[in-house]
Amino acid sequence: MAVTTKATIASFGGKLLKLSHNAKTTGCEMSFNLYLPPQAFVSGGQKVPLLIYLSGLTCTADNCSEKGFFQHGASKKGIAVLYPDTSPRGLGIQGEDDAYDFGSGAGFYVDATLPPYDKGYNMYSYITEELPATVFEAFASQIDRERVSITGHSMGGHGALTLFLRNPGKYKSVSAFAPITNPINCPWGQKAFKGYFGEDNQEKWKEHDATELVKKWKGPLNVLIDVGTGDNFYKQGQLLPENFAKAAQEADIKGVQIRYQPDYDHSYYTMATFADDHVEHAAKYLF
Amino acid sequence: MAVTTKATIASFGGKLLKLSHNAKTTGCEMSFNLYLPPQAFVSGGQKVPLLIYLSGLTCTADNCSEKGFFQHGASKKGIAVLYPDTSPRGLGIQGEDDAYDFGSGAGFYVDATLPPYDKGYNMYSYITEELPATVFEAFASQIDRERVSITGHSMGGHGALTLFLRNPGKYKSVSAFAPITNPINCPWGQKAFKGYFGEDNQEKWKEHDATELVKKWKGPLNVLIDVGTGDNFYKQGQLLPENFAKAAQEADIKGVQIRYQPDYDHSYYTMATFADDHVEHAAKYLF
Predict the structure, then answer these.
(1) Half-sphere exposure of residue A155: CA atoms within 13 angstroms, side-chain side
(2) Given this model, what pLDDT does residue B173 score?
């Protein structure tokens, strides 16, 4: 589980590391970024907790590292931030690079069951198991593997919600920006699940749908979700946070906080504005 | 002096406006961004001061708007931020797009005197006169034309320092990130001044060299400069802040604060980290 360091960049008193490793689950070299806050470099200091940020369609690890402003809050709280990539790269599957919303850059944080994508498109296993195991081993003296939270944007918000809901206790908290909360009922999700699971595999679809998963959740959820009212994808019905809220309410799930931010759009300008709030939310459960 | 609005983006409680206008000084349509903080939208509220951020080589108005995080501090202080472009665009001058460090994206904030660049490469007049006049007219009810400060990065740091030093009283304060402080003695500056002024026009070169200009400055300067010790362009002798510091010291100029930030590089990760400090520096003189 060797990790290659491509770059070390000073950021908010800590270090933004550009890293890569050969991943078994995806069958290719995977790039990722890791922000280590200043507290991680205090000799004899305590290990820092980890916040995983899952990116949206078309993104790599770099977009949010550069534009998301998570390092600002993470440096103050003493939280490491892991920025994974959004899919395998260069597997050579015919058509995998043809669309922005399916294939490369659009792994949807699932393990594909349908050929040819079942060969390598295993972002669920990669994000829940292989990548964190690799990071915890490589940074064992700096990162506390027992304190991990998760967040994400759009497709990555779907990833954060579904990974949290499918793995009770694995993550200390969850939050999301403009998440796809009901993929089985929106064009993006239907296209992805059809391609990765097959049209008839509806049970599998529901296993990766936050609105379906929340119906079975036990206890409080304590999730923070920000959705911009100026977000065109929200207006187009790709995100459907109302469906998630309704399902949570009907299941009597407490702690679901959805903030509709006036005029904010789907871009990183929105993440930058509210990143501190999401780091603060994670910090409440990580410390 | 009509301004066209291309986009209005919510950011840190205010609005990031993507704008353009047909500029006489450059003879082309010029794009620029303007951040209006929340305080600018308080009905019956006071006008807000303006901080001009000059970008570096290859950049447009968007780079720092997305990655610099000036909006974070500006939204708290109540300061508008103007992000101009770095050169005329599309003038059709042969070779203007051939190099990253000369021509388009590399106007160096001077008025060229040498053909063919004397046709339109007038970024000094554009930044000191035409653009602010356009902004003050279009946003007369929101921006206070009497309170303007200036900052910038690399080539834009050169711009901020030289525009401030050439125009006593025009700007309330100046700061810079990794500025080119002695262009007549570094490869970037020599190439630019040779192309815009001609090799023999040494007096003109000195008129746009911060290290030469500071020798003639009267009174305190109160400038904040951040330079990263991991900045490859600093290591290569493109920035030469020591020359500027020495000239200021020999001229007994007070208030020159140069901070050498350990390991920080030439990228926007550095601006993001210290943007709040530079907004705070400007706020001291704008309020």
Answers:
(1) 30
(2) 98
* CB contact at 8 A, A37 and A92: no
Q: Does A149 touch chain B (CB under 8 A)?
A: no
Distance CA A174, CA A51 (A): 9
Q: Looking at chain B, which runs of residues are DSSP E strands?
A: 4-11, 14-23, 28-36, 48-54, 80-84, 143-152, 174-177, 223-228, 256-261
> Residue A274's pLDDT is what?
98
- What distance in Å separates residue B66's CA from the closest CA in chain A? 6
Backbone angles phi, psi at B28, to 5 degrees: -155, 170
Rounded CA gap, B227 and B178, in Å? 5
Task: Identify the residue among A6, A76, A267 best suited for mutation to test binding to B, counting B beta carbons within 10 A and taking the highest.
Answer: A267
What is the model's pLDDT at position B75? 98
Contact B176, B258 (CB under 8 A): no
Nearest beta carbon to residue A11 from set B10, B11, B269: B269
As given in the structure block, the two tokens for residue A4 are: 């290659």
Q: Which residue is it, tokens 């000369």?
A: B102
Q: pLDDT over 90 for what percent of chain A?
A: 98
pLDDT mean over A4-24: 98
In chain A, what is the greatest distance between 2 CA atoms, to the nearest angstrom?
Answer: 55
Q: Which residues pair with A111 in a beta bridge?
A: A122
Reply yes or no on whether the pLDDT at A235 is more than 90: yes
Q: Which residue is listed with tokens 């902004």?
A: B135
- Alpha-carbon span B47 to B214, nearest angstrom: 32
Name residues whose C-beta falls within 8 Å of residue B92's C-beta, 6 or more positions apart in sequence.
none
Identify which of B221, B237, B272, B132 has the alpha carbon closest to the alpha carbon of residue A64: B272
**What are the residue ranges in chain B where pLDDT is below 70?**
1
Assembly ipTM: 0.95
Domains of chain B are 3-286 (3.40.50.1820)
DSSP assigned state of A256: E
Read off the pLDDT band of A1 (50, 70, 90). Answer: low
Model pTM above 0.90: yes
β partners of residue B30:
B21
A225 and A157 in contact (C-beta within 8 Å)? yes
B154 is annotated as an active-site residue: yes
Mean pLDDT of all residues in A147-170: 98
In Å, what is the CA distance from B127 to each residue of A51, B79, B130, B139? Answer: 42, 18, 6, 17
Interchain contact B76–A (C-beta under 8 A): no
Q: Which single residue is written with the structure tokens 């007549």?
A: B184
